[in-house]
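User: I'm putting together a teaching handout on how multi-component assemblies are represented. Below are the sequence lines for each component of a complex, exactly as they appear in our records. Could you produce the 3D structure of the whole assembly as structure tokens, so the students can see both representations side by side? Please keep the chain order the same as the input.
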Amino acid sequence: MILAQNLTKHYGDKIALDNLTLDIAPGEIFCLLGQNGAGKTTTINCFLGFTKATSGKAFINGLDVAKQPLESKKHLAYLPEVVMLYPNLTGLENLDYFSRLAGFKHDKGDLLICLEKAGLQEADGKRRVSGYSKGMRQKVGIAIALAKKAKALFLDEPTSGLDPKASNDFSQLLLELKNDDVAVLMATHDIFRAKDVANRIGIMKDGKLMNVLDNSGHLQAKEIEELYLQTI
Amino acid sequence: MFLLQLKYETLRLLRSPMLWLLLVFLAVSVGFGAYNGVRRIAAKRQSVGEMLAQQQEDLGKQKMQADSVARGLKKVGGWYLDPTNVIVVGGVWRGGWVTAFEPAPQSLLAAGMSDLQPDAWRLTLMGKDARGDSEFENPVNLAFGTFDLSFVLAFLLPLLVIALSFNLVSGEREQGTLALQWAQPVATGRLFLMKTLARFTLLAALTLLVTLPILTWSGISLANAAAWQTAGLAVLYSLFWFLLALGVNLRGGSSAQNALLCVGAWLLFTLVVPALVNMVSEKAHPVPSRASYLNEMRDADAYLEAQKKTVLDVFYQKHPNYTRKSEAEKEWQDWYREDFAVMDFDKKFRDSLEQRYIAPAESQSDFAENLTLLSPALSVHRQMTDLAGTSQQAYKASEKSLDASQKNWASFFLKKFEANENLTTADYDVILKFPDKVMAANVSGSSKGAFWLAVQCLLVGFWAWWSGRRLHRA
Amino acid sequence: MVFTIANQELRSILREGRFKTAAILLSGLFLLSLVGAFDYYSALKKQHEEAAQTARKQWENQEDKNPHSAAHYGTYVFKPIYPLSYFDRGVDAFTGNTLFLEAHRSHQSKFKTAEERGDFARLGVLTPAFVLGMLFPLFIIVLGFGSAAAERENGNLRLLLAQGVRPSTLFWGKSLGLWGAVLALAIPFFMAGAGGLLVSGAGGEHWLRYACTLLLYLAYFGCFIHLTLLISAWTGRQSVSLVGSLGVWVLICLIAPKAAVNVAKQQYPAPTWQSYNASIKADLKNGVDGHDAADAYTERLEKETLQKYGVDSVQHLPFNWAGFVMQKGEEHETYVFQKHKAELLKVYQQQQQVHQAAAVVSPFVLTGILSQRLAGTDVDVYFDFLAAAERYRIQLVGELNGELTNNFKYGDWDGKRGKAFFAKNSQFDYQPPTLSSLLGSLGKPAAAMLIWLLISGLAAILFFNKLKPV
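Assistant: Of course. Below is the structure of the complete assembly, with chains in the same order as your input.
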């Protein structure tokens, strides 16, 4: 579903991505760990078409991101680190707006269902976003992905700033999406959360994917941390 | 897509308290400006009305006296008190006919020069002299200027537009909604275009909503082209500032930076550039002070006295029917006949002197007007004063039409003077019906201001587009 | 501690790109305004001085004529141009430049500079007062709108408070820092501004006036420093602070003066042309305030005078009755003219009170009033000039009528006087009010300015105290 082939990005002399190869199947959650500046956000930007790769290719559901930008976007959803949304609009209205941009004309009922699935109560959905906590805003972001029926989800530091309960809620949500065969690429600093939800964990350094760990086994969070520290 | 953007832009703006604050502020300002204009016109109409009513009354009384004198029922103390005397009524030092400027309803749009220019002219047999309330206006009031609609439009409207567009792009970027939108399957170019169109449609609608009702309420009905011209000007002006804010946004800076730049541009165009234009035009075409003009006029008096004999020689040659009398023998008819004979010669000479003061002033103001391109505030000011008929040019044009009026007035009496006739009551009836009002000219639909504003919009639009391309490439 | 904070504030301001850009632009404009305004002033001064000399020469060299004819020939006087008018042009462009003095008439001054210029001239003239009064406050706002709000937004405020800094100390520190930045520009400006006085060679009193003007502008800047800090602390957010400060500036510098004009005109309208002239005519015709109408007055005067000198007809009086009665008539008419002028002046003064009331909202209006008064370009000086010109008119006409009265035989209208006589007539020598005489009228606005400074400062401290660190 999410495929990167020798993705490389140069900014002048600086190498942001160095021959990155990545393959995430539907229903798989892949967590990307790495220091600030290691290339996590650049990777996501390449898939989203925000940045043009210097060489290599990125595919979403078999569509070449560079060659078919609009088509590929139909299949993905994105949750940036700072998700503010439009403060004067309600959660419902925000959802409606972004859905329509994506080409979907859901009626109010359907949108409320999406919000509910994302964990947002109807009453909250009708309040203005300016009063939301970060967790609530994220749920709207997830709802946008759901409303779009996106098959690939890109998350940039989703749990930064969330309290343990919200963080946990978020994990649950991800696991549900996994069951819906959504492929998830999540850039994060949160080793604990990565241990919780990921199928595989990748560690990036200087634009290279140094190490990919399989999370299906008995790896403990502490071990992951040590491996991380060794790698970087 | 456009409708989607329009719907949500509207919702977002309507729910921001900032918008309401600004709208109220603008509405109050427009209202106050229009109200002041209405009062100004009312005051002028009253003032002019007083003058003309008094004139009708006085001449009416004079007509009765003329009747008595003609019938021999009343004796007069001297020819200069005789109400049937052509000179006395036609006017040189006294008498004459007052013609006043009548403000049109759209005069409320801009005070322009109306507080400095005369409200009326007294037409005489030899020329005309000015009169008006501006003689009594407190200089402090003149110096501060007035809170009229033109001021609100030129200075305050841009602030509203800037406040609603300075963070068009930067705000969304800082909010994260920009990235979210880019992640949707929409072409960014199209999205951006629709968004800006929607935002501007809203701004234009707001501008119209604020200006049109107030204009109608203050007396410029929707049937009057001036209402639509003003509204159109306001929208065009909003477009300029909107495009400017857009260009600034496309530089890619933060909202705070954008705000400072936009406000800086506002300051530049509304305050600094006009002041600089004035300074440069003053330097390029300095106008000599009228102080020296007066002294020159005095010297001219002496010169003209000396020339009088020669001119009269020619006159008496041409008109052998008139006898040239000596000073002691001359009667009032002879004095005035000679005055009329040299009148044209005198006027030509004095006018050429006056040109030395008028010409540089005109050059200076023409020079300044050629620099209208440098600031949209100048374009707006120019167009508004032209619409209102209170621009310097409008007054000059009105003055010219008065010269024609004066010639008519004078010729009526001069004919009788030459025929040695006196005025009858029938003549008085004709006189009383002489046109006494002039509509302050709308400089024949001049739209120079609007033209320059359109050019400025194009230029700033081009800059915004170029800004965007640079950003795109980076 | 105050100085530590001040130092930090000053340093961060000076290092900002904003400061450099704004300072360069402002300096450029100030210098331009100085040069341009001084140029204009010296040209105008020269023209008026020359015109006054020419007018006198014309008076002296007029054709030999009867003194009363000379009284109708009249003379011109020209508005004086003061040394500091290059700094603040005040209402100069809106007061008439020339005044014609003749017998039996009290004319209005003519030829306001502004009425002959184009439309754009009303939009603002670049003078040092304009730059200091309108643009400099923006400079202050741009530098200071962040201060308290930024500290709060980026969390430094919590650190500061944790270090034991009191809010009022913070205020004093920031205020001092801002003052540093302001003075860094203001002092060079003031020094440059003095150049005009140096070049024009004006005398001692003008230096004192200039010094007072500087103090005035410093107080004005202080008001804006306090306002900016106040708004910054009150709003707690930089964006809102900027918008708020700009809004306040627009209100103070643009809206208040103009709105004041409209309110003043509405409350205390000046007479219309018709009513003013008509009431003068009526008073002349019908007599006023115990002064009889012209004819009745002349009759009475004749009777009294004949009685006084014990003669039975005016020819037998020891002086020329014609001259005598004309002078008396002149004085009689002057009474009416003065009365109406005084009423007009009263209206103007009432309007001024409205303008001054606007000073409650706008220190810009206050500064304008004071700056103009100090520069000698305010309305009061102009009215003083007009009054002096009127006194001169009466004096001159008096001399002419006196000559007629004392040295002419009754009924002799052919006698002439020439250069010898006219050269002896008094000259118009107007001395503007000295600074010491102004102290009274300067007192109230100056006090108002200080009150503004004080209250804005106190309010700012108040809001600094209320600043919530979160």
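A couple of points students might notice: The mean pLDDT of chain C is 88. Chain C touches chain B through 86 residues (CB under 8 Å).
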